[in-house]
């Protein structure tokens, strides 16, 4: 987890950032929206951080809701939010920062299918600030679900 | 239904992670996410405390080994100390896993490593471009694969260090 050399290819994201994943896991476990967290494949080899959201907060029409987080040593990330609905449909979106040929490095995959991609601006790229923004956005999604 | 806002602007969004932590806890948590030299004034802003308080706590974290300081720059800069944190992880693995378990994990990782090397036709993950494809989903898949590949290389090194610690009764060098 040493710092990458400054001449490394700009399109590299680096390996999973173990320390940031552990930091985010610690905060997710104390977040009121989250019921449970898990590392994939496990905590000795943390690559993907899964947060299962507390279904008591959701209307009955939503059967599961999950947030999948990857954070890379170059500061890139993906936060993928997925709701499974009782009618078999999904509602998903993702906050992403990574190289690509057609969008800003920082971009957002719009719900409900995460296919439409728009550029995104965030006040800070610090993991805890990104985390706070994403969880607060999910909280607003919850308010929308209840008012439907 | 209102349109979904991916970056809601509210005090709650800014301060969500800070609930129930004191100033030292906030400076500590901010430091763990800082991977390049960063002015203590900026860390103070992220940790929602005074620059003086941030500097005091950053100095303490530096003494503990968790943070690295560059005091020659003006203002002084700080970042997390990856060397220390890697040793801490290896030390924990040495504590919790037996040498046989570590050897088994390394063998499994080496198999995965070979699969990636065959898939991409090289032993160097940094030689493979993530953005070779225009298709966004493809970029995601390649990015995840190449990152996991790099992760596997690091995990093998971490287990090697853990095995060394285990064999030296927790010390980096034999007594």
TrEMBL record, chain A:
Classification via InterPro entries: TumE-like
Domain of life, source organism: Archaea
UniProt name for this protein: Uncharacterized protein
The organism of origin for this protein: Natribaculum luteum
Automatic annotation (TrEMBL), chain B:
Pfam families cross-referenced by the UniProt entry: DUF7342
SUPFAM superfamilies with a match to the protein in the record: Winged helix' DNA-binding domain
Upper classification of the organism: Archaea, Methanobacteriati, Methanobacteriota, Stenosarchaea group, Halobacteria
Top-level taxon: Archaea
Organism: Natribaculum luteum
Name by which UniProt lists this protein: Winged helix-turn-helix domain-containing protein
């Amino acid at each position: 987890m040493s710092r990458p050399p400054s001449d490394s290819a700009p399109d590299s994201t680096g390996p999973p950032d173990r320390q940031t994943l552990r930091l985010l896991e610690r905060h997710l476990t104390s977040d009121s929206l989250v019921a449970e967290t898990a590392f994939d494949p496990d905590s000795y080899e943390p690559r993907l951080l899964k947060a299962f959201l507390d279904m008591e907060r959701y209307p009955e029409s939503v059967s599961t809701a999950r947030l999948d987080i990857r954070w890379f040593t170059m500061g890139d990330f993906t936060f993928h939010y997925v709701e499974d609905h009782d009618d078999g449909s999904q509602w998903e979106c993702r906050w992403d920062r990574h190289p690509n040929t057609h969008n800003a490095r920082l971009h957002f995959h719009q719900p409900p299918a995460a296919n439409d991609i728009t550029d995104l601006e965030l006040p800070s790229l610090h993991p805890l600030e990104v985390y706070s923004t994403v969880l607060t956005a999910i909280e607003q999604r919850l308010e929308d679900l209840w008012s439907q | 239904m209102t349109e979904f806002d991916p970056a809601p602007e509210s005090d709650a969004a800014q301060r969500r992670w800070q609930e129930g932590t004191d100033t030292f806890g906030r400076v500590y948590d901010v430091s763990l996410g800082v991977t390049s030299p960063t002015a203590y004034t900026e860390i103070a802003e992220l940790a929602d405390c005074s620059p003086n308080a941030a500097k005091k706590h950053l100095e303490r974290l530096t003494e503990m080994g968790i943070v690295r300081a560059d005091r020659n720059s003006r203002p002084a800069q700080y970042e997390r100390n990856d060397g220390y944190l890697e040793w801490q992880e290896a030390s924990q693995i040495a504590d919790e896993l037996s040498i046989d378990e570590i050897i088994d994990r390394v063998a499994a990782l080496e198999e995965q490593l070979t699969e990636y090397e065959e898939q991409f036709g090289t032993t160097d993950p940094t030689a493979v471009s993530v953005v070779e494809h225009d298709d966004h989903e493809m970029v995601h898949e390649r990015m995840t694969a190449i990152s996991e590949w790099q992760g596997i290389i690091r995990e093998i090194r971490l287990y090697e260090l853990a095995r060394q610690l285990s064999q030296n009764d927790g010390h980096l060098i034999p007594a």
